[in-house]
Design brief:
The structure is a homodimer of 467-residue chains. By secondary structure, chain A is an alpha/beta fold. Chain A has 2 domains: 287 residues, 3-Layer(aba) Sandwich (Aminopeptidase), CATH 3.40.630; 153 residues, 3-Layer(bba) Sandwich (Glucose Oxidase, domain 1), CATH 3.50.30. In chain A, a hairpin with a 6-residue loop joins strand 2 and strand 3. Chain A is elongated and about 75 Å long. At the A-B interface, helix 1, helix 2, helix 6, strand 14 and strand 15 of A face helix 1, helix 2, helix 6, strand 14 and strand 15 of B.
Chain lengths: 467, 467
Amino acid sequence: MRKLPFLLLFAFTVQISFAQTEDSIFIKRISDEILTNGKAYENLRHLTKKIGARLAGSPGMVKSEQWGLKVMQESGAHKAWMQECMVPHWVRGGKDIASAAYIPERGEVKSGPYPTSVKKELDIIALGNSVGTGNNTLTEQVVLVNSFDELEKKKEEVKDKIVFYNYKFNPTYINTFLSYRDAGQYRGQGPSRAAKYGAKAVIVRSMSHAADNHPHTGAIRYDSAYAKIPAVAIGLQDADWLSEQLQKRNVMVTLKTNGHFLPDTIGHNIIGELRGTEFPDEIITVGGHLDSWDNCEGAHDDGAGCVQTIEMLRAFKAIGYKPKRTIRFVLFANEENGLRGGNKYAEEAKAKNEKHILAMESDAGGFTPRSLGFSGSDVQYEKVLSWKALIAPYGCTEINKGGGGADIGPLNRALKTPTASLNPDSQRYFDIHHARSDVFEAVNKRELELGAVNMAAFIYLVDKYGL
Amino acid sequence: MRKLPFLLLFAFTVQISFAQTEDSIFIKRISDEILTNGKAYENLRHLTKKIGARLAGSPGMVKSEQWGLKVMQESGAHKAWMQECMVPHWVRGGKDIASAAYIPERGEVKSGPYPTSVKKELDIIALGNSVGTGNNTLTEQVVLVNSFDELEKKKEEVKDKIVFYNYKFNPTYINTFLSYRDAGQYRGQGPSRAAKYGAKAVIVRSMSHAADNHPHTGAIRYDSAYAKIPAVAIGLQDADWLSEQLQKRNVMVTLKTNGHFLPDTIGHNIIGELRGTEFPDEIITVGGHLDSWDNCEGAHDDGAGCVQTIEMLRAFKAIGYKPKRTIRFVLFANEENGLRGGNKYAEEAKAKNEKHILAMESDAGGFTPRSLGFSGSDVQYEKVLSWKALIAPYGCTEINKGGGGADIGPLNRALKTPTASLNPDSQRYFDIHHARSDVFEAVNKRELELGAVNMAAFIYLVDKYGL
């Protein structure tokens, strides 16, 4: 595109036609501050490139907590602290006791002649919380199932085998979170449902429609009624290949995984606070989660939510905003494989009898903002909806019923706190979600910043008008 | 993000709550076809990776035209043809007559001591349609101006110098096309406005807010009243550095550019047609432009619009749709530096007394769809607006007044044809626009496909109900 046709421009001016009110002027100030002087992108660069992966219990977790506290302080929090909680400590590897060398995960296909024998390394990743194959490798025949229904039909066949769940991520949902909900059960429940029929391990097709072959990890939930068996994911190209092979031959796969739990350890929620001037006892929480999976930089999941949270604090301070209510900016611990941070935050809020009027979360990636989600009473929803025209010019053109996040769920359950979420565009999220491709380079600076702008506008309105 | 909170899902189901009508069912079929069997992404891979840059007059132009015709035929056009037009033939380089070696563009800063001398290669790119520095390099002192106002103030100083326009791309506009309109005048008019006061060349800060240093090219328009002088762009890091230097010292820059025009040559619009069954003489045009700048793959600009256009044809055929009206799928020639393709299309339509009821263009990148733009009568706009709920579930949640595209502008002017545009999210466009970073890897498969879905839905409705 060379130049902008005049007619086309007409459409764009809609964004500034909203009557100039005190609120619209203030929100524009927030937006200008974040888009002009924003530090979210450079903070994300530090978090991803200098610290990197930060699964609960890892050295990255400790470093990121220290960093988070420092940045909260530097960004102008009246008070910043670490809220301690015990966190699970799952590790992927894998050190040889004799040599202390790292033992890598490995998946390999080696199968006999039809028409010729095949041998192929699979690009695998053990699923989070999964057990390993022990000191030895595990070599078994693979049974292809395309769904749980098919597993039920083949339940007599899977004993002592490896079950390969090849359930496809549905491309026809426009909102990709629906595809994730649909396919995600194969990761979460798949291992135990296969173990129920005596399977020795499972291989899961990654929950993604990426054009690449990266495997995507994520937590599994073992059902205590059945044996805990090793579970790995493979990427889409490997999954298609394996499925094709299995339609014409028997396939043997050798797996070596090393996942295991170490004793629980200490982690922290990182909290920065701006003290309210009129109603300091009314608390608004906004946050993301600081932990990430261990195989990536956790740039979108949920580095983005963390640096957006810090950016709101920085921007409020930079423009001299003095909130009426107390706003807490929280980087939650251990969302990915335990939710201990979110639980701890709710427990302490309840124990201290705190009054929480809203909790908001950004945990769907640092993509261009599209809508806000809100869960509260109908009266509250009507109030929130009345702010739509104030926020729409910045990207969130809708405020939908239904909003929250894993970390703020416990607060909602403990204190009935209304919850909200930033819903960015979902098209690119599952390309990189829990995969090695979730890196800084996958995040766009302006998309990231606009997420902070939309949330800050919403928080400002809740602070000003209550709920 | 680990799992989807139940409440959040509630918001996502809105997309499927629209009453199932014949139209909504049909549009879902189009969408499912494109998202499941779409070829837009693989077509784009071919166009960008096998063919690459395709500026008017270049070998890439010829190859892409042949490819376009073939793909139109393979995608099921009832008729596909090349519409000839003369196109300008601007080239960037630059061959040494004696050795036939390519002469690269070059920009270098070499300046005396303050406090120490500086020497630095600038990453430059000549602006499109610009003249070169001739057989020799051009070395002159640089005058920094941050705006045209500042140029006027410094008009006595710029004679025989190089003017450096350091006008910043405004980050505070949410729609980045507004920033482009604002800053773009420095590229388009800058050279002649500096030449008016005797400048020897201009350097322009790129129209971008990218975090990298790639220079962005684009067309300039010389004013015939003044000398044609060389004009180059530099990236943002170089621009910030140069501006900083100029605030403390005199800076000499050496430029070598080789741009020049060869005689006009033959190019083509590539047209595929589905013949209407009821009103074959009523024509709906939808397209993008096949040419790109010579320094990139033109993946977003406008490879995306081309493969979306072809995808609509493919999908209509694949689901057996027989349009009432004639639909023409057009890959326009020479949008970037001449618009000869769009002009030719309009001329021929007028000469043949054709009846064109709508022309639609996709030329704002292959990003996630956000809105449609429409320019027509108020009655027509009301009709179009009544389709909003049918299209919104696929991403274009708004239908705004004002829509068109450079290539379909001439048809509108010649025949008063209503025009429409796909308006995808604009945040990432000017990171890569006219820069070497506009490559296949910058395009997301689903975002690209959804653009085709939204346009196909609109074209279907116009075909069915007329305008």
